[in-house]
Amino acid sequence: MNAPFPSPTKPPLRLLIAAPRGFCAGVDRAIEIVERAIEKYGAPVYVRHEIVHNRFVVDGLKAKGAVFVEELDEVPDGVPVIFSAHGVPKSVPAAASQRGLDWLDATCPLVSKVHRQAERQITEGRHILFIGHAGHPEVIGTFGQVPEGSMTLVETIADVEALELPEGKELAYLSQTTLSVEDTAAIIEAIQTRFPHVTAPKAEDICYATSNRQAAVKEIAPKCELVFVIGAPNSSNSLRLAEVAQRMGACSQLIQRATDIDPAWLEGVETVGLTAGASAPEELVNEVIARIKELREVESEEVVTARETITFKLPRQLTA
């Protein structure tokens, strides 16, 4: 009796890992501020809003002694408080000082740069068109740097077309740092078309990390049927990475942990991409890679499109 033909073996799953990915300099700095504050002051140290949008990171800091609250009035007297990497309205540190609280500002320096630009444009008599997502903490923080009514939020090209502004008013535009590079460019073009004399920022407001991570996804996504993006559902930069992958022709799945992966997603897939939002640690990337290797034989390759060497200084209270 002839032996049966051997069943065909599946080819290994090709895994393309985007670089840069994961933590940016602003997130590294914010997390280190919380950790150093706990070392210096002892637990508990209070943090207004999630220090960064990642549950794994937040839970890790909670275990070390950080307490996360939404508003300053939840912070008891006599304990330190830290403001998140997304930035806060000016009224928040003012209220903390009025209460005599020791406070530390973990706002990303690139967000702070946008804050300073907003103040300067208002001082020079311009009304600001701010490109961003309503309700995002960074948008709320930036609007809180300037007098009420001196800035208008635009989220889409349709918003630009619907604007009703006083005749002769000088205009400037700024943007949230974590937006889609392509969408923002299209909105800026619409602003400049409608308001040819609008003042542009001296440098692009979308941060280097957001741009670099989107560029890396653009490189790998056309070669993939599926791209995993590790990030939180409230993380703007992570959501934008998922959108970029879809626009480049791949399916995308935003996941927070390896346990979110449905094995059915990998059925019939030959090439998978993997990236992580700027608030997701490399530990989660390694966890996802390990999970994929449990499900399929894998040949992995890191695709590097940029090298990041930027670091930001810590507040003087923590380095003195």
UniProtKB/TrEMBL annotation:
Cofactors that this protein relies on: [4Fe-4S] cluster
Reactions listed under catalytic activity: isopentenyl diphosphate + 2 oxidized [2Fe-2S]-[ferredoxin] + H2O = (2E)-4-hydroxy-3-methylbut-2-enyl diphosphate + 2 reduced [2Fe-2S]-[ferredoxin] + 2 H(+); dimethylallyl diphosphate + 2 oxidized [2Fe-2S]-[ferredoxin] + H2O = (2E)-4-hydroxy-3-methylbut-2-enyl diphosphate + 2 reduced [2Fe-2S]-[ferredoxin] + 2 H(+)
Pathway: Isoprenoid biosynthesis; dimethylallyl diphosphate biosynthesis; dimethylallyl diphosphate from (2E)-4-hydroxy-3-methylbutenyl diphosphate: step 1/1; Isoprenoid biosynthesis; isopentenyl diphosphate biosynthesis via DXP pathway; isopentenyl diphosphate from 1-deoxy-D-xylulose 5-phosphate: step 6/6
Record: residues binding isopentenyl diphosphate: H53, H86, H136, S235, S236, N237, S279
A GO MF label: metal ion binding
UniProt cross-references to Gene3D superfamilies, sorted A to Z: 3.40.50.11270, 4-hydroxy-3-methylbut-2-enyl diphosphate reductase, catalytic domain (3.40.1010.20)
Enzyme class: oxidoreductase
Residues that, per the record, bind dimethylallyl diphosphate: H53, H86, H136, S235, S236, N237, S279
Active site, per annotation: E138 (proton donor)
The enzyme's E.C. designation: 1.17.7.4
Cofactor descriptive note: Binds 1 [4Fe-4S] cluster per subunit.
Iron among keywords: yes
Positions contributing to (2E)-4-hydroxy-3-methylbut-2-enyl diphosphate binding: H53, H86, H136, T177, S235, S236, N237, S279
Keywords for this protein: 4Fe-4S, Iron, Iron-sulfur, Isoprene biosynthesis, Metal-binding, Oxidoreductase
Binding site for [4Fe-4S] cluster: C24, C108, C207
Pfam families (UniProt xref): LYTB
Example GO BP: dimethylallyl diphosphate biosynthetic process
Family label: Belongs to the IspH family.
Protein function: Catalyzes the conversion of 1-hydroxy-2-methyl-2-(E)-butenyl 4-diphosphate (HMBPP) into a mixture of isopentenyl diphosphate (IPP) and dimethylallyl diphosphate (DMAPP). Acts in the terminal step of the DOXP/MEP pathway for isoprenoid precursor biosynthesis.
Record protein name field: 4-hydroxy-3-methylbut-2-enyl diphosphate reductase
Record organism: Novosphingobium aureum
Lineage of the organism: Bacteria, Pseudomonadati, Pseudomonadota, Alphaproteobacteria, Sphingomonadales
